[in-house]
Amino acid sequence: MTKRGFFVSFEGGDGCGKTTQMRLLLERLRSQGKDVLETAEPGGTPIGRQIRRILLDSANDALSPRAEMLLYFACRAQNVDEWIRPALAAGRIVVSDRFTDSTLAYQGEGRGLTAELVRELHAIACQEILPDLTIYLDIDYRTGLARARARNAEQDGPDESRMEAQAEEFHERVRRGYLALAAAEPERIRTIDARQSLEAVAAAIWAEVQPHV
Ligand code: TMP
Question: How far does residue 31's CA lie from ligand 1's centre (Å)?
Answer without folding.
Answer: 28
